[in-house]
Amino acid sequence: MITLLGRKIGMTQIFTDAGKMIPVTVIEAGPEVVTQVKTEETDGYAAVQVGFEDKKANRTNKPEEGHFKKAGIEAKKNLAEFRIEEGESYEVGQIITVAAFEEGKKLDITGTSKGKGTQGNIKRHGHHRGPMSHGSKHKRLHGALAGASYPGRVFKGNKSPGRMGRETVTVQNVELVKIIEDRNLLLVKGAVPGGKGGLLKIRYAVKGQDE
Predict the structure, then answer these.
(1) CA distance 76 to 82
(2) Tens digits of residue pLDDT in 48-97
(3) What is the pTM of this model?
(4) CA proximity to 78, closest of 113, 135, 28
(5) What does the alpha-carbon distance between residue 152 and residue 202 come to, in Å, rounded to a whole number?
């Protein structure tokens, strides 16, 4: 299934012919180039490796330099891999652009969520606060963690304060509202994970696709 790499530009809004306002996220997607084609015979599975965004030569190590030289292309900052489905065929050096997608279809978009730093249990897990009356010592603290004399310990996996965000998140069935081919832009309905400039992986939705 085609996977296109892109950068989140930001959010804006567009209007339909009927005057309806639609909030959209603008994504600069591709162009990406096929850097390697994997086959059942050589690698044990069929897949395609793609590269996105040029990389300076002085930032490319020897193994990467050899890999890109073998493919006959310039070094790339970001690499991703996707499986080849039946009927699909790719060649090393092939360019994949936003033209591979179709307006109105549903997409699954994967990115890294914004980091929130260390947060308390209320913000991190949505716990309720304690009484706010005078003398209360349980305003925004977590509740009891251990079960008195039995089991007398804290079980693993308890929801507690800690680092929040900066995780891989996928939003599913996002509508592709508009494609601007000459600028390599995708306009998708609603929000997607991460901040401005974040790297995204875009592919057709696995479920919920409107035929």
Answers:
(1) 17
(2) 999 999 999 889 999 999 999 998 999 999 999 999 887 778 899 999 99
(3) 0.84
(4) 28
(5) 47
